Automatic annotation (TrEMBL):
Signal peptide annotation: 1-25
Gene: xynZ_5
Biological processes, Gene Ontology terms: xylan catabolic process
Enzyme class: hydrolase
Keyword tags: Carbohydrate metabolism, Glycosidase, Hydrolase, Polysaccharide degradation, Signal, Xylan degradation
Name of the protein described by the UniProt record: Endo-1,4-beta-xylanase Z
This enzyme's EC code(s): 3.2.1.8
Superkingdom in the source lineage: Bacteria
One Gene Ontology molecular-function label: endo-1,4-beta-xylanase activity
Amino acid sequence: MNRNTFLALVIAMAVLSPQVTDANAQDKVERRQPKPEVRYELGADSLKNNDVPQGRLEGPHLFHSDIIENTVRQYWVFVPAQYDKDKPANVLVFQDGARTMNPNGVIRAQNVLENLIAKKQIPVTVGIFITPGQRGDAFPDSIGFGNPNNRDREYDVLDDKYARFIVEEMLPEVGKKYNLSKDRADRAIGGSSSGGICAFTVAWQKPEEFRNVISFIGSFTNIHGGHVYPDLVLEAEKKDIRIFLQDGVNDLRRPDNLERDWHIQNQKMVAAFEEKGYDMAYVFGEGGHSDDHGGAMLPLMLRWVWRDHPDVEDKTDGDKLVAMAKAMKPKVTDPFPGFDASAEVDPSGVYEWSGRMGRTRMASTLKVKNDGGKITGTLETERDGEVTTADIMNPTLEGNKLGFDIEREFNNREMKITYQGIVHGDKIVGWQSFNFRGQDRDRGWEAKKAK
C-alpha cells in the first residue's frame, strides 16, 4: 500500500468513526487537540536594564478625536533619558498601545527603545503607544489589555481617516510638549494583527509623513477589504516606504477562503513588494496569531528600519539584521504539561474563571461531579448581565486530564467549545478550543476551585 492510499484510508476511518458520548467510554471520545504551544522568548534588548539611562513612560492620557468622531482612547508617551528639547527626536508610533507598553507583555517597546538608544543602535526616539478608540465619552478600565470596540473600524479599513488622525491630531498633541521630528525618515509606525495593516495603511496613505513600517502578523485579510492590498501595491506607482513584516506559518489559516488566510495574505504582500522593488524585509516563523515572535524581533526590526540613520553609531548591515531575526528559534511546549494517564484524581467541585469572547467579558462557573467514574456537570456563564447554564457534553477523565464540550450561542450563531485541562490540586489548567468563522482557535484556560 503506498503512502497516499494509506493516508486516504486513515482519513476515511476518522470520518466514518462514530462519536461516542458515553462518559464511561472516555477513551473513545474524539476531540481536536490544541497545537503544541510555540513561543519566542524575549532577548536582553527587550528586558528592563537598570544599568542604562532610564527614560520615563507617561500616561495613560485620554484623547477625544474630532476626525474619528465619538471616540475616546488612551495613549502613553515614552521619553528617553537622552531626549534633548533642542533637537527633534525620532518617533515610533505603535498601535494597541496598552499591549505595546505592558511591562509583563511580549512587546515591551519602552524597554526596547531604552536599551537600543543606550547602545546607539537607533536614534533618540520618542515612543507614542495608542489604543484603538472606544465609542462614546468614557474609556472603561475593564478594557485592560483587550480591544476597544472601534478597533476594526479604525484599523482594518483602507481609507485615510486613521492616517489623518495620527498626522493631524496625535503627533501635534504630543508635539505640544516634545520636539518631534517631521522628517518622514525619522518616523516609524508599527502594529500587530489589525494594528499591522493599520500601520501600513498610514504609510500608504501618507508616505510623505511616514517612511518606516513594522508589521507583526498583519491582518492583510478581508476583514474590511484588506485582502486587496497586494493588488493595490502591484497596480500603484511604487511608494517610498520601507517595511519589515513578520508572520507565522501557523497564523490564522482558511484554506476554504484564502482572503481570510493570514499567512497566505502575508505571503502575497511579500510577493507584491518584491515585484515592485520595495525596500522590504520579512521573516516567517513557526508561531501562530500571537505578538510574541514580532515582540522578540522588535529590536532587530527597529535597527533595520533605521540602519542607515546618521545618528546611529553602532551600525549593522541590513541583511545581517534580517539573518539574525530569521535565526530565532521558538520554544515548543506540550499543550498539556504534567499529563499523567495513570494518575487518579477527583475533579469534583465548583471552579471559576473569567475572560473575553470577542469584545464581551464573561464570567464562568463550572460545577463538576464524579459519581463512581461517571462525570457530570454544568457550566454557568454570565455575559452582559445575562446568565445561561448548559450541561457539559461528552465528559472524559483520562488520568488527570478532564475534557468536556459545551454548546452555546455567540453573536447569533451556535458554537461548540471544547475544554481540556490538567487537574492540578485546586486548579484545572489547559485549553478552550473552538472554530470561529472557519478557523480553529485555541485559547489558554485556567479555572480555580471556588472557596
